Amino acid sequence: MRFLRTAAIFCAFAFLQFHLSDLEAAVQFISGRLVFEDYSFTCDQQCVVSLLISGVRPIQTVVADLGGHFTFNNVPRGPFAIRVEIDGFEVANVPIRDFDIGHEMMITVPAIRRPVALPTGGPVVNISDFRDRYSKKAVSFFEKGRASLKNKKIDEAVKYLRNAVELAPTFSEAHNQLGIAYMEGGQKDDAESEFIKAHELNSSAVDPLLNLTRLYLNENDLDRAVMASEQAVKADSHSPSAFFSLGVALYKAEQFDRAAVALNRALELGPKVGTIRLLLANVYLKLQAYDKSLEQLSKYIFENPDGQQLQEATDMRARLLQARAPGQP
Q1: N or C: which end of the chain has fewer CB within 10 A?
Q2: Distance between terminal CA atoms of the chain?
Q3: Domains in the chain with CATH codes
Q4: Tens-place pLDDT, residues 299-315
C-alpha cells in the first residue's frame, strides 16, 4: 500500500450559503484578516484566499500578506464564501454574512496539517504487480497519469488515467488515481464515483476511502465523511492513517470523545507520527482536558526537535501553562 499522497481533510469550517437579495448596489470591497486557531501561525507560507460566489465559483483569488490581511476589490453582489488554502494544511470554507461586507472581518482558520505522511499500514504498491495483471498499454497510461498528477498537470493526468481504466476497467488503483485527478480539478462528483469504484474493486484498499473522506470533508458532508473513514478502519484495522482519518472526521463533527478514542488508537499504531499528537492535543483542548493536552504537546516537542510545527506547539503549550498559572481566571 502506498503512502496516502492526498490524505483526509481536516477541520474545514462549516459551509453555509447566505442570500443577499436585499443588497441592491454592488459591493466595493471585501477585506479581512486570517487568524489561526489554537496555536500561533502566520502567512510566512503562502496563504491563498479565494472569494466564492454562491459558495461555488471563485471570482477572485489573492495571496494574503505576512500578517494574514487580504482584500477583494470591485466585488459584485453575493452570496459569498471565503476559501483559504495553505500548502500542507486543510482547506477552510467560511461563509460571509451580509454585515461582514464592506468591513474588515476576522477569518478563523484551523492550521492543522494534512496527514500526508501517515502510512496506511499495508505493503507498498509495486508497479510490477500491475504489469502482471493488466495490459502493457493500460499500465503505461497509468504511469503517465501518475507522473502528470505529480507534476500538477491535471487535465493531462485525467486523460491518461481515463485511458487506463477504459483499457482495464478492473484496475482499482487507476480508478483511485483518476479520482484524485478529478478532485484536484474540481470535478467532485466524478471524483466520488471513481473512489467508490476503486473501493468496490478492492475492498481491502484504504487509500480510496481516505480520499473519499477528504472529498466529503472538503464539502463539509460530515456524516458521509465519518462513514467513509469508519469503512477505512474496517478495511484495515492496523492502519494509523485510517484511524487518523476517522479522528479528523469526528473532530470536525464535534464528536470529541470519539475523536480522542480514534486518535489514541492511531497513536498506538503510529507512535512516531507527530501530527497525531498535535491533533489529539487540540481534541483534549476542546474537551477541556488541559493536562492531557499539555502532555501531548510536551511529547511532540520532545520527540520532534526539528518538527515543522515545533514553534506552533511550543507557543500553544506556553499559552496553556500561562492560563493555568496562579491568579489567572
Answers
A1: C
A2: 50
A3: 30-109 (2.60.40.10), 123-202 (1.25.40.10)
A4: 999 988 887 788 888 88
